[in-house]
Design a protein that fits this description.
Blueprint lengths: L15 H7 L9 H14 L2 E2 L20 H8 L13 E6 L4 H10 L8 E4 L6 E4 L9 E4 L3
Parallel strand pairs: 3-5
Antiparallel strand pairs: 1-2, 2-4, 3-4
Length: 148
Amino acid sequence: MMYKPKNFILEELVCPHVFRKYGEQAWTFFDYRILMVLDFIRDQLGATYVNNWDMGGNYSQRGLRCIQCDLVKKAIKNNILYESAHLRGQAFDFKVKNKTYSKVNLWIISNPIHIPFPIRMEKNTKGWSHVDVCNDGKNGYIVQTFIG
């Protein structure tokens, strides 16, 4: 199933390498569940920001990443196995305007039954929130786990 979120444009969700090479075809790289979760978060919490590279901002690796992204290249250079959900189109790092990441995380943790799909959250983030729809083999809605 392909899903295009109503609240985001593609440039907000992919790195510039993917956008330049694949354009609109990049929508097919996402797990529809994470896009629906992201739409839900923006509907509930307001202005939610992922990447801003297309407007001259500094964020380009907070959604779908590729092997040309600095985070991935650094891991490869250091011989680190890098299996992030960001590479599979199943994860986003984001901020919500006028809300601290700790308040956003608390809201998500407090409302698991309203979120459209089971999610995981990255703990110990510093200034952003992370959600993904990776299968962890458990039936709970929110699993506090570190994922890189």
